[in-house]
Design goal:
With 219 residues, the protein is mostly helical. It has 8 helices and no strands. 72% of the residues lie in helices and 0% in strands. This is Dihydroxyacetone kinase, C-terminal domain.
Length: 219
Protein backbone atom coordinates (compact mmCIF):
# COMPACT_ATOMS: atom_id res chain seq x y z
CA UNK A 1 0.00 0.00 0.00
CA UNK A 2 2.79 2.41 0.86
CA UNK A 3 4.27 2.13 -2.64
CA UNK A 4 0.90 2.99 -4.22
CA UNK A 5 0.49 5.87 -1.78
CA UNK A 6 3.98 7.20 -2.43
CA UNK A 7 3.46 7.01 -6.19
CA UNK A 8 0.12 8.79 -5.81
CA UNK A 9 1.74 11.67 -3.91
CA UNK A 10 4.69 11.85 -6.30
CA UNK A 11 2.22 12.06 -9.18
CA UNK A 12 0.27 14.69 -7.26
CA UNK A 13 3.32 16.93 -6.99
CA UNK A 14 3.97 16.46 -10.71
CA UNK A 15 0.41 17.57 -11.44
CA UNK A 16 0.83 20.60 -9.18
CA UNK A 17 4.05 21.58 -10.92
CA UNK A 18 2.53 21.27 -14.40
CA UNK A 19 -0.56 23.27 -13.38
CA UNK A 20 1.42 26.01 -11.64
CA UNK A 21 3.78 26.28 -14.59
CA UNK A 22 0.81 26.60 -16.96
CA UNK A 23 -0.67 29.36 -14.82
CA UNK A 24 2.53 31.15 -13.81
CA UNK A 25 2.06 34.11 -16.16
CA UNK A 26 -1.45 34.73 -14.86
CA UNK A 27 -0.26 34.41 -11.25
CA UNK A 28 2.56 36.87 -11.85
CA UNK A 29 0.10 39.22 -13.54
CA UNK A 30 -2.13 39.09 -10.44
CA UNK A 31 0.95 39.69 -8.30
CA UNK A 32 1.96 42.64 -10.47
CA UNK A 33 -1.18 44.49 -9.38
CA UNK A 34 -0.39 44.28 -5.66
CA UNK A 35 3.12 42.84 -5.30
CA UNK A 36 6.41 42.15 -7.08
CA UNK A 37 4.98 40.34 -10.12
CA UNK A 38 7.03 37.22 -9.41
CA UNK A 39 4.60 34.89 -7.62
CA UNK A 40 4.06 32.63 -10.61
CA UNK A 41 7.78 32.33 -11.25
CA UNK A 42 8.69 31.54 -7.65
CA UNK A 43 5.90 28.97 -7.28
CA UNK A 44 6.92 27.30 -10.52
CA UNK A 45 10.55 27.13 -9.42
CA UNK A 46 9.52 25.73 -6.05
CA UNK A 47 7.48 22.85 -7.41
CA UNK A 48 10.01 22.04 -10.12
CA UNK A 49 12.58 21.69 -7.34
CA UNK A 50 10.23 19.42 -5.40
CA UNK A 51 9.83 17.12 -8.39
CA UNK A 52 13.56 17.09 -9.08
CA UNK A 53 14.16 15.81 -5.54
CA UNK A 54 11.31 13.30 -5.67
CA UNK A 55 12.83 11.64 -8.74
CA UNK A 56 15.76 10.65 -6.52
CA UNK A 57 13.50 8.64 -4.18
CA UNK A 58 12.85 4.93 -4.48
CA UNK A 59 9.06 5.08 -4.51
CA UNK A 60 8.87 1.33 -3.92
CA UNK A 61 10.31 1.95 -0.45
CA UNK A 62 9.19 5.51 0.35
CA UNK A 63 6.37 6.37 2.74
CA UNK A 64 3.86 9.19 2.12
CA UNK A 65 5.32 11.09 5.08
CA UNK A 66 8.72 11.02 3.37
CA UNK A 67 7.26 12.49 0.17
CA UNK A 68 6.01 15.53 2.07
CA UNK A 69 9.26 15.83 4.04
CA UNK A 70 11.26 15.93 0.80
CA UNK A 71 8.81 18.44 -0.65
CA UNK A 72 9.23 20.70 2.38
CA UNK A 73 13.01 20.80 2.15
CA UNK A 74 13.12 21.17 -1.63
CA UNK A 75 10.53 23.95 -1.73
CA UNK A 76 12.25 25.91 1.02
CA UNK A 77 15.66 25.58 -0.65
CA UNK A 78 14.28 26.80 -3.99
CA UNK A 79 12.01 29.61 -2.81
CA UNK A 80 13.63 32.14 -0.53
CA UNK A 81 10.67 34.53 -0.54
CA UNK A 82 7.96 34.45 2.11
CA UNK A 83 6.05 31.78 0.20
CA UNK A 84 8.90 29.30 0.70
CA UNK A 85 8.72 29.03 4.49
CA UNK A 86 4.91 29.04 4.40
CA UNK A 87 4.54 26.02 2.13
CA UNK A 88 7.57 24.28 3.62
CA UNK A 89 5.91 24.48 7.05
CA UNK A 90 2.63 23.24 5.57
CA UNK A 91 4.34 20.27 3.92
CA UNK A 92 6.26 19.54 7.12
CA UNK A 93 3.07 19.52 9.18
CA UNK A 94 1.48 17.14 6.68
CA UNK A 95 4.54 14.90 6.86
CA UNK A 96 4.42 14.71 10.66
CA UNK A 97 0.69 13.96 10.65
CA UNK A 98 1.08 11.23 8.04
CA UNK A 99 3.42 9.29 10.31
CA UNK A 100 0.35 8.23 12.30
CA UNK A 101 -1.66 7.32 9.18
CA UNK A 102 0.13 6.57 5.91
CA UNK A 103 -2.99 5.14 4.27
CA UNK A 104 -4.13 8.14 2.19
CA UNK A 105 -7.71 7.25 3.08
CA UNK A 106 -10.32 10.00 2.58
CA UNK A 107 -9.93 10.96 6.24
CA UNK A 108 -6.15 11.05 5.76
CA UNK A 109 -6.53 13.26 2.69
CA UNK A 110 -8.71 15.68 4.66
CA UNK A 111 -6.05 15.69 7.36
CA UNK A 112 -3.38 16.61 4.79
CA UNK A 113 -5.37 19.66 3.69
CA UNK A 114 -5.98 20.77 7.26
CA UNK A 115 -2.36 20.23 8.31
CA UNK A 116 -1.14 22.24 5.31
CA UNK A 117 -3.54 25.00 6.35
CA UNK A 118 -2.27 24.78 9.92
CA UNK A 119 1.36 24.99 8.87
CA UNK A 120 0.79 27.99 6.61
CA UNK A 121 -1.22 29.72 9.32
CA UNK A 122 1.30 28.86 12.02
CA UNK A 123 4.18 30.31 10.01
CA UNK A 124 2.39 33.32 8.54
CA UNK A 125 0.33 34.24 11.64
CA UNK A 126 -2.52 35.22 9.31
CA UNK A 127 -6.24 34.69 9.38
CA UNK A 128 -9.22 34.72 7.07
CA UNK A 129 -9.86 38.19 5.68
CA UNK A 130 -6.21 39.27 5.53
CA UNK A 131 -6.22 38.87 1.71
CA UNK A 132 -3.67 36.06 1.58
CA UNK A 133 -3.50 32.41 0.53
CA UNK A 134 -5.25 31.57 3.80
CA UNK A 135 -8.47 32.95 2.36
CA UNK A 136 -8.40 29.87 0.13
CA UNK A 137 -6.72 27.39 2.50
CA UNK A 138 -8.90 28.02 5.56
CA UNK A 139 -12.26 27.39 3.85
CA UNK A 140 -10.71 24.46 1.97
CA UNK A 141 -9.61 22.89 5.26
CA UNK A 142 -13.00 23.50 6.84
CA UNK A 143 -14.68 21.84 3.87
CA UNK A 144 -12.26 18.91 4.12
CA UNK A 145 -12.95 18.31 7.81
CA UNK A 146 -16.70 18.68 7.28
CA UNK A 147 -16.70 16.29 4.31
CA UNK A 148 -14.62 13.78 6.24
CA UNK A 149 -17.00 13.92 9.20
CA UNK A 150 -19.89 13.26 6.81
CA UNK A 151 -17.89 10.39 5.25
CA UNK A 152 -18.27 11.74 1.73
CA UNK A 153 -16.65 9.79 -1.09
CA UNK A 154 -13.31 11.06 -2.37
CA UNK A 155 -14.74 12.90 -5.39
CA UNK A 156 -17.48 14.55 -3.35
CA UNK A 157 -15.05 15.59 -0.65
CA UNK A 158 -12.56 17.12 -3.07
CA UNK A 159 -15.23 18.92 -5.04
CA UNK A 160 -16.40 20.52 -1.79
CA UNK A 161 -12.82 21.45 -0.92
CA UNK A 162 -12.20 23.03 -4.31
CA UNK A 163 -15.51 24.89 -4.34
CA UNK A 164 -14.73 26.41 -0.93
CA UNK A 165 -11.20 27.36 -2.00
CA UNK A 166 -12.40 29.01 -5.20
CA UNK A 167 -15.04 31.02 -3.35
CA UNK A 168 -12.46 32.06 -0.79
CA UNK A 169 -9.94 33.13 -3.43
CA UNK A 170 -12.56 35.10 -5.35
CA UNK A 171 -13.62 36.88 -2.16
CA UNK A 172 -10.14 38.43 -1.83
CA UNK A 173 -10.93 40.90 -4.61
CA UNK A 174 -13.21 42.76 -2.19
CA UNK A 175 -10.64 42.82 0.62
CA UNK A 176 -8.02 45.35 1.67
CA UNK A 177 -4.74 43.55 2.24
CA UNK A 178 -3.69 43.32 5.89
CA UNK A 179 -0.49 41.29 5.45
CA UNK A 180 2.43 41.01 3.08
CA UNK A 181 3.66 43.50 0.51
CA UNK A 182 0.12 44.21 -0.66
CA UNK A 183 -0.70 45.69 2.76
CA UNK A 184 1.41 48.72 1.84
CA UNK A 185 -1.12 49.59 -0.85
CA UNK A 186 -4.02 49.97 1.55
CA UNK A 187 -7.26 50.70 -0.30
CA UNK A 188 -5.48 50.33 -3.64
CA UNK A 189 -5.33 46.57 -3.08
CA UNK A 190 -9.12 46.45 -3.51
CA UNK A 191 -10.44 44.92 -6.71
CA UNK A 192 -7.57 42.44 -7.14
CA UNK A 193 -7.57 38.71 -6.38
CA UNK A 194 -4.72 37.71 -4.12
CA UNK A 195 -2.13 35.74 -6.14
CA UNK A 196 -1.38 33.43 -3.22
CA UNK A 197 -5.03 32.50 -2.93
CA UNK A 198 -5.19 31.96 -6.69
CA UNK A 199 -2.18 29.63 -6.63
CA UNK A 200 -3.68 27.75 -3.67
CA UNK A 201 -6.71 26.94 -5.84
CA UNK A 202 -4.42 25.61 -8.58
CA UNK A 203 -2.63 23.42 -6.03
CA UNK A 204 -5.86 22.09 -4.54
CA UNK A 205 -7.33 21.37 -7.99
CA UNK A 206 -4.24 19.32 -8.89
CA UNK A 207 -4.48 17.50 -5.56
CA UNK A 208 -8.14 16.70 -6.25
CA UNK A 209 -7.36 15.35 -9.70
CA UNK A 210 -4.57 13.15 -8.37
CA UNK A 211 -6.57 11.67 -5.51
CA UNK A 212 -9.76 11.16 -7.53
CA UNK A 213 -7.83 9.44 -10.32
CA UNK A 214 -6.02 7.22 -7.82
CA UNK A 215 -9.36 6.25 -6.29
CA UNK A 216 -10.80 5.36 -9.71
CA UNK A 217 -7.76 3.28 -10.58
CA UNK A 218 -8.03 1.36 -7.31
CA UNK A 219 -11.77 0.78 -7.47
Amino acid sequence: MSEKAARCLSGMFQRISIAINAGKDHLSELDGAIGDADHGITMSLGFMAVNAELTKLDLAQALPSEIFAVAASAFLDAVGASTGPLYATGFRRASQALKSDESLSPACQAMIVDEMRAGIQQRGKGQRGDKTMLDAWIPAAEAAINASARELAVAGMWNAILEAAEAGANSTSSMVAARGRAARLGERSLGHIDPGAASAVIILRAMRDAFVEARLNNS
